[in-house]
Amino acid sequence: MDSMKKGWFSEFGQLWPGQTFSLECEEVLFQGKSPYQEVLAFRSKTYGNVLVLDGVIQATDRDEFAYQEMFAHLALCSHPDPKKVLVIGGGDGGILREIAKHQCVEEITICEIDQMVIDTAKKFLPEMAKGFDDPRVTLFMGDGCAYLEQKKNEYDVIIVDSSDPVDGGPAETLYAAPFYRHLKEALRPGGLVCTQAECQWIHLNIIAELIRFSRNLFSHVEYAYTTIPSYPCGQIGFLLASTGDSCKTPKRTIDESLNKYYNEEIHNASFVLPSFVRRAIYKDENSQ
């Protein structure tokens, strides 16, 4: 295992050349190769259990809530009354756990391609994977793009919890314009999508391209972010694309006692970007 040496896991990725993030490993819990990717789970010394896909950290016990809560609640609180929600990816179950906090949601469908990810999360990250236990959840095993092609005018909110767009990886097609057209077609009037949109410190070119073609499809396209120490540069972003109103101000609130990270103030603040980011991804500051 190239990423595990002398008791330390080190994350090397083609999307963040010249840097790495390392965690001291106490025990390798699982290692396997699915038809789609390499799956690793280990117990770290300071971050609890860790899920890794193709050498890239997806979740840790210590900080996963900063990602899961912001991903789910930025999207759901930006819709006035979400009833049907689709999650593409997210096989660890964390997004499902957060969606389940919204009692107005009647149906939650998750489309995940890799059964090994689900099984590994259920065994080693049970506090996240308990999202699968909600009775409103329906699991569809398969490719997210193919699933979306069959869906028209069906969902209020779609959340795309994908891995990074590595060449040849399972998420590569999820960062292309045709996929976003399918996302829009699957939305009900006033619906919105929220997708994983990379790191503002090292992926401005990817973010700018996502925003460029999404603006041709949606009424409002906005970038927000959260802090999370186990992700590259300690930050990860979300692209919110709406066929209705802006997502910068929540339309609904959620009981803050249910969360560790998300609240109404941080919803608003997450869209406030450094000047260099705003100039790079929006090109025209006056339009945002």
Automatic annotation (TrEMBL):
The keyword Transferase applies. GO terms for biological process: spermidine biosynthetic process. One of its GO terms (cellular component) is cytosol. GO terms for molecular function: spermidine synthase activity. PROSITE patterns: PABS_1, PABS_2. InterPro entries: PABS, PABS_CS, SAM-dependent_MTases_sf, Spermi_synthase, Spermidine_synt_N, Spermidine_synt_N_sf. Gene3D superfamilies: Spermidine synthase, tetramerisation domain, Vaccinia Virus protein VP39. Keywords: Polyamine biosynthesis, Transferase. Residues 6-243 form the PABS domain. Belongs to the spermidine/spermine synthase family. NCBIfam families: MFS_SpdSyn, PRK00811.1, speE. HAMAP family: Spermidine_synth. This is Spermidine synthase. It comes from Planoprotostelium fungivorum.
